[in-house]
Amino acid sequence: DQQVKQNSPSLSVQEGRISILNCDYTNSMFDYFLWYKKYPAEGPTFLISISSIKDKNEDGRFTVFLNKSAKHLSLHIVPSQPGDSAVYFCAASRQNTGFQKLVFGTGTRLLVSP
Amino acid sequence: KAGVTQTPRYLIKTRGQQVTLSCSPISGHRSVSWYQQTPGQGLQFLFEYFSETQRNKGNFPGRFSGRQFSNSRSEMNVSTLELGDSALYLCASSFETANSPLHFGNGTRLTVT
What we know:
- The complex is a heterodimer.
- Chain A is mainly beta.
- Chain A has strands at 4-5, 10-14, 19-25, 32-38, 45-51, 56-59, 62-67, 72-77, 86-93, 103-104, 108-113.
- Chain B is mainly β.
- Chain B has no helices and eleven strands.
- In chain B, the strands form two sheets. In chain B, strands 2, 4, 5, 6, 9, 10 and 11 form a seven-stranded mixed sheet that branches.
- In chain B, a hairpin with a 3-residue loop joins strand 4 (31-38) and strand 5 (42-50).
- Chains A and B meet through strand 4, strand 5 and strand 10 of A and strand 4, strand 5, strand 9 and strand 10 of B.
């Protein structure tokens, strides 16, 4: 039962354009969501998070949007840079079962070309 | 500030053997979690330790165990290794305050032959 889904395994974008990565979840009890970036041979790196009480959070070039009614979140990267090329994972947790117990999506590989 | 350190980076073991992986969290982080990453199942939660106590556990068999020491360093152990245990094992640490993000190490790549 895949509770967190990233339906696009890959995405290609040109440098300077916007990258939009999508994530859907099925468990309405999730109340905290995160995005991680992963380079080969490295562990995931935390990018940005959002609590279920918000619908948007920004950090520099990265913005996460949360649509609770649709159980959908997205990560926007503007402008995209070649160094952003990596695998992006969305993750979700429930406060009452421990926010360290993250449920991850399967990842989307982003390729930003010059 | 040093990140999460995992040792060793690579391990090759034979079926039936056991293995111990080590994790040193970021200084000041007292929560340590372990995850398994495989191509088929993605990243899956194994367990979480806080103040030397297992506070949360995922859906893995009892062959997977862990512990945490008083300095917050953690080890995980897998006994009676199976071919399917081949994976990248990731350790993550965090503050104990609500919704503190997990910071991951670079993992230990375990290959079981």
